Every structure is written in C-alpha cells, then in structure tokens.
Amino acid sequence: FWATFFKELGYRVILSPVSNRKIYELGIESIPSESECYPAKLAHGHVSWLINQKVDFIFYPALFYERNEFEDANNHYNCPIVTSYSENIKNNVEEIERGEVILRNPFMSFRDLKTITEALVREFKELPSKEVIAASEKAWNELNAARTDMQKKGEETLQYLKETGKRGIVLAGRPYHIDPEINHGIPELITSYDIAVLTEDSVSHLAKPERPLIVSDQWMYHSRLYAAASYVKTVDNLDLIQLNSFGCGLDAVTTDQVNDILTGSDKIYTCLKIDEVNNLGAARIRIRSLLSAIRVREKLNKQRTIRSSAITKVPFTEEMRKDYTILAPQMSPIHFDVIEAAFRACGYNFEILGNDNRRAVDVGLKYVNNDACYPSLMVVGQIMDALLSGKYDLNKVAVIMTQTGGGCRATNYVGFIRRALEKAGMPQIPVISLNLGGIETNPGFHLNAEMLMRVAYAALFGDIFMRCVYRMRPYEQTKGSVEEVHQKWLKKCCEFVSGKHMRFATFNKMCRQIIADFDAIPITNEVKPRVGIVGEILVKFAPAANNYLVDLLESEGAEAVVPDLVDFMLYCFYNQIYKADYLGMSKKTALISRLGIRGIEFLRGSARHAFEKSTHFTPPSSIYETVKNAKTIVNIGNQTGEGWFLTGEMIELIHSGVNNIVCTQPFACLPNHVVGKGVIKELRKHYPLSNIVAIDYDPGASEVNQLNRIKLMLSTAQKNLHKKEEDAS
Predict the structure, then answer these.
(1) Is pLDDT at 414 greater than 80 in this prediction?
(2) Domains in the chain, ordered, with CATH?
C-alpha cells in the first residue's frame, strides 16, 4: 500500500535494508525499554539507517485500527506496540529531536479505503487532495491484489501437497515474523525436512473459527491466527507452529486460543519463542519432536474428531439475582469500600474480595498463562482463591469483571477468568462483563442510570478520601487521627450511596464537610518530598500489587500523591471523542462521551470548589487540561492501556510541584513501553527537575531491587528539597 501510494504521488521511496544484527546495534542506544519485543527494538536500527541516508522525511504511521478482514470478530485493532511505536521513535531518537530529519507519524485508522483516504488527505495538506485520493485508491487496490496473490499461492501449495502426499506446516505469527533476522531461519529449517511452509495469511481465508471464542477476538492479525488454526484442524496433512516473540504480552491470549482450537480437534500445538538470541538448537528439537509425534500418530492410524472452538457462555439470569453472590476482585480499597455499598443498594448480593495478597498471585500463576500481565494474575488469583476456599456455594456464585473493550490485554480478563473456571472444573459459574460498550450483556444484571449514579457518587467519595488521607496522614500530630476521620465519613458515605433517595444537595454538602474535617486535623510543620504514583491502573491503586508503595513512601519520610480514579473514567470518555474526530468512529458515541464528561465534572464541582478553598489541598485538574499537557509529548491516539493519560498525569503532577514520580507498571506492559518508560527521556528534557523512576511489578520481580530503586529516587528527592530550602533562605 505505502510504496504504491508514495510512488503515485511522485516520491522516491527508500526502504531500509533487510534486518540483521548490525541494523539492530545501530539503534540500540535509543531503545527505552529492555523488556519490549525484538521487532520493536529493531525499528530503532531501521530508523537510524534511514537517517544516515539523509532522507527528506521518514513516514512511520501509527495505525490504531487494521483492515477489517473478519466481520464477525469483536474488533480489528493493531497490537499496542504496532499502533504506537512511532511515538517511541519520536521521543527517543536524538537526531529526530534535533531536527536532523522530519518524522511524520500520524495516527490513522486503516479500517477501509474511505477512512484511510480521509486521514491521508488530512495529513498531506500540502498536496492537492485529488492526487492524494487517487493515490490512496490505487494503493488500496494494489494491497487487495497482493492479498489475493498470497491467498492463491496458499491454495496452489495446498494443491501441491495433496497431489504429492507431502506435509505442510503453517508457520503462524505476525507479518514481521517473515523477517529473517526475527525468525532466525526457522522456515528454512522446516523446509530442510521436506515440509512445505505456509504463512497464516495464505490460508486464513479458507475457514472461520466457530464463535464465540473464549477470548475477545479484537486484534486483526490474531484473527488471522485463529482462522488459520481453524483451517489446519480440518486438514490431516497440515500442522501449525506458532512463532511468539519474547515479551509479546498479547500472545498470552493468542497462544492459549490457538492451542484450544488445535488440541480440541486432536491436533498437536507447537509454539516457538524467539528473541534477539540466534540459537536454533531448541527450535530444531521442538520441530523434530512435532514430526516424530505426527509419525507415531500416523502409524497408530489415530482417528481425529473435529470439534467446534465455540464456547457456551453461562448467562447471569434474573432468577440468579435472588440468591447468587457476585464476587468482584479488589483494586483500590479506599474506593471499593464505598463502591461495594453502591452495588448492594442496586439489589445485588455483591462482595469485593479481600484476599489481594501473595497467595492470590500464587493461585493466579496456576490458572493463567504465565506470560499474562501481573494484574491478570492478581485478578484471576483472587477469584480462584476465593472459589477454592470452600466459603462459597459454587452453584450459587457469580463473578464480575470490568471490560473496557480497548486494545490492551485487560479486555481479555473475562476470558482469562472463564478459562480458569473451566480448568478448575467450575464451568457453571457465570462471568459478568461490566462494560458500557455492549460487549457482553446478561439478562440478570442491569447497568442502568441508578447504578451508574450510585457508582459515580461512590468513586467521587473514594477520590476525596484518597486525596485527603494521603495528603494529611504523613503529617498528623496524633497518630491515627486521619484514619479516624476517614472511618467516620466512610460509614456516612456508604449510607448515602445505599439510600433510597440520593439528593444532590446532600452530596454537595457532604463533600464540603469531609474536606473541611480533614483540613482541620492538626498537622506538623514538616516539609517532606512529595512523590506521585502513576501507571497501570491496578498496579497504581492496589496496595498488594505495588507492594504497599504508599506505606513504603510514608515510612521513608515522603508524602504520596495519587491522581484520581474518576480521571480514568474521563480518559475513557475522551478517547471516544478523539476516535470520532480522527479515526472515523461514531459521532453519536462522541456526543454521549462529551455529556458523560460534563456530568462527572458537574458532580465533582462542589468537591473541586471545596478543595480550592481549603488550606491543605489542591483541586483535581480538568480532563481537557490533561489532554493539553499530554499533547506536548505524545499523540492522543495513544489509547491502549492508560495511553496518553499516563503521560498527561505525569505532566500534571510536575505542574503541581510534584517532581518525584514512581511509574508503576506490570513487567512487559505493552502500552507502558511507549507512554511510560518511552516518555521519561523527553519529560526530563522538558522538565529538568523531574525525578522519575519506572518500576516493573511481576510475581518474580525482586522486591529488594524495587526498594533500592525507590530509595535512590527518594534520596534524589531529599537532596532537591534541601537545595530548594537553601535557595529560598
């Protein structure tokens, strides 16, 4: 597509060369995160090579949505790294920062010809729109022709195998896995055994997976994997090997699903993990083992049964409301104490689990793919630990989990839970998806206006508590006085969100009184370094997930500052506005989102006003201000995970005088490679006093290492504070 598009417009197109070790080493200095996948790391080298060729500009688009090749899939995202990696190039390659070369990295949707053409006309304003439209149309036709050629070649190869009686292996992965530097010669290794190699996109048009799948089928390249596996399971002379780049978080989802499709129809599943290390020894052993197992099956003349990949979802029915307990994992105790009461008031026997501890993580490791991110292990671990405890009647219990529908792994937590329940022999337990986008519905669970209002009030109370408790507790003259005020108001807030009539005037009055009560607590005159906590939402808010970071900071003589939970809801709303403006999505959804932002800001207006008038507190900033801040570093198209919002929060903290920041993230969190670790270098350029440390959290992460790095950050914070005091005096 792109080569044809630019050639039609009269550009001379220069491609970087075939990848090799030298290309990788060329860009190694600008790689911001060691745990990202090898294909992402290679991009730095290719960009550096192009810069050395003195090109006029580098075009590296950020494609949020891929072509919609499977109409019945849940969505057609690109992976977070494929989508946003040009942002890492922009923020970490010095030559681009110095203006030695122009990088054009517009965020676009590749959904269909109309959408991509509109985006290209907008991007290339300096060119006549007629020429851009004509070039785009020709490029789209060329892309279709290339896809057709690939499919024909696949069909020809299958016919050849049928005629010769030979075997074939579908070497399934992403488009970049055809790069010899990435696949390390695995295709040639397979063909050396006289076996044909096919790519997943050469056969993915020949079958469709039976739906619904246990996973959320929302990444287009992965939809190809599922379709290819669905074809392979029906053909005796074909097998499949999946290539998996180390650090690819999404493959924690795809490898399980491809495995299910194949083994469910008595096929052998093989996965080869690859990274920058070129060692084919292990791959050779795995391939030989696969071929040996196939030969044994042929000798035994084992008959296969082809089974459907579809699952039967257990709905939460209206009858279940009466006597079923709904379990929800813990995320932020200071908020969820009130949110639990809000759900109970809506007529559900709702229970927030209190087992967010190390044991839950250990249980999670038994039931979740160990390449899945830390929050998914924590969430599934809590649920399974509770269900295995014997405390609940397994025929009278349901599980609830939020589902955002975004391009990050979090949308698949519901699938992770269902898989864990099946593995543990509890398939009868309903899993309720809590979402605003209509991803899944249940006849017995109603996300209505009353519930939304109660939960909104509860979340706002939680934000007030968090802002007040964390601000006052490090300085309280009488130990326990802050918690005493917190508990007093917690009881009243739970009563309010549980009440039959929630009067807005009463809510406003309570907000003012809560803030006034905290503001009146006697505190010392100490000056302590203030440390912001940002990052992936669960690791940021859940004390068990971040190893009780707030307590640690306070014990080390610092004050923790955590941005509001409600701001994340506003971020989700704002994303819909951007998608409508730039990615060809629904204008109606954008309008509803604007109303949602206005409604939440209206609700917290009295709290904002009370914070402004208080002695010790600062008010929350507007989501539109956060957008404005984030735009100075990243594009608002960064919407997977915490996306642009994470960068915006860090800038917001710095603007409010909090220069010390802990960026918490699960190990190998894909969006955080870009909007967390990936922006630190650029933030330090804009804000020289910023003191930011990125901490990875994982079941196997060394707490000593985490502690040492946090203490080093605090040491710098203390030095900066003393210097500031000296300069002031």
Answers:
(1) yes
(2) 2-144 (no CATH), 149-300 (3.40.50.11900), 320-447 (3.40.50), 528-563+620-728 (3.40.50.11900)
